[in-house]
Amino acid sequence: MSVKLIAIDMDGTLLNSQKKISAENIVAIQKASQAGIKIVLCTGRPKSGIVPYFEQLGLTDEEYIIMNNGCSVYNTKNWDLMVAEELTYDEIERLAQVCASYPEVCLTLTGDKSYYALADEVPDLVQYDAGLVFDTARAVDMADLKAEGELIFQAMYMAKKEYLDVFQAAVDGDLSQDFSTVRSQEYIYEVLPQGATKASGLRQLAEKLDIEPAEIMALGDAANDIEMLDFAGVSVAMGNATDDIKKRCRYTTSSNDDYGVAKAIYDYAL
């Protein structure tokens, strides 16, 4: 069965260690699109951290982007929001209470338009992360958040690794009962609406496009890619992925610094 859709993680996959897209990857993605294969960036990033990269790909057909680790799906023709999973204010208040006794941990929220820190002021680590997605974090309280009324897709607890390790060990057993949780980076522990993963977003999009899982190729390198890789019929681990990721996948390509996405497209899709 031929590949009709390619789901591509960004950090550690499409982007190299310098957070850039290689010319080799761009050419391969364009060839796949020209062959009629749908290109879907599938990432934990919010819209602000995706659009500048997507524009570099130079794709002319309507494509799709799964953002916020599966909480939102947009088309790229007019940036309509096709799928949305959101956190309620009650859930956000609960998440704030969970970290109240951990002053080193900051609760951040990704909305449809804004990057929030639920705090009196934005910690340097949070502002650093916001900068990686070409945004600026704003400090808000619950009253401000409710007044703005923005859709909140995901929450992220941020702290230095040693603090976040302790925090996650203490709270994950409880939170994972009611939310989808994942440690996406050493300084980020994510909390998403229950059932929301990259795979859930990809499944909903595939159904809309009438594409079977067996016709999907997915590429990834990290823990928040696991469900997506398990869902796709053609799963490809990056050369820089962990051994656990590689064992789960049908294939392994070269690393993100050695044009692994392009190699996988030529080897398994074209």
Q: Give the total of domains.
A: 2
Top CATH class of the largest domain? Alpha Beta
Total beta strands: 14
**SSE string, helices as H and strands as E:** EHEHEEEHEEHEHEHEEHEHEHEH
Radius of gyration: 18 Å
User: What is the 3D shape?
Assistant: globular
Number of helices: 10
CATH architecture annotation of the largest domain: 3-Layer(aba) Sandwich
Strand content: 15-25%
Distance between the termini: 12 Å
Helix content: 25-40%
Question: Which fold does the CATH topology of the largest domain refer to?
Answer: Rossmann fold
Biggest sheet strand line-up: 5-4-3-2-1-12-13-14
Largest sheet: 8 strands, mixed
Outline the secondary-structure elements.
Blueprint (H helix, E strand, L loop, with lengths): L4 E4 L14 H12 L3 E5 L8 H7 L6 E4 L4 E4 L5 E4 L4 H10 L7 E6 L3 E4 L5 H9 L5 E3 L1 H7 L3 E7 L2 H15 L3 E7 L2 E6 L4 H12 L6 E5 L5 H6 L2 E4 L5 H6 L2 E2 L7 H10 L1
Parallel strand pairs: 1-2, 1-12, 2-3, 7-8, 12-13, 13-14
Antiparallel strand pairs: 3-4, 4-5, 6-7, 6-9, 9-11, 10-11
Helix pairs in contact: 1-10
Write a brief caption for the model.
Helices cover 35% and strands 24% of the residues.
Task: Describe the fold and architecture.
The chain is built from 10 helices and 14 strands. It starts with a strand and ends with a helix. The radius of gyration is 18 Å and the shape is globular. Strand 7, helix 4 and strand 8 form a beta-alpha-beta unit. The chain has 2 domains: 154 residues, Rossmann fold (3-Layer(aba) Sandwich); 105 residues, Hypothetical Protein, Haloacid Dehalogenase-like Hydrolase, Chain: A, domain 2. The protein has 270 residues and is of the alpha/beta class. It has an 8-stranded mixed β-sheet, with helices on both faces. 35% of the residues lie in helices and 24% in strands. The longest helix is centred in the middle third of the chain and has 15 residues.
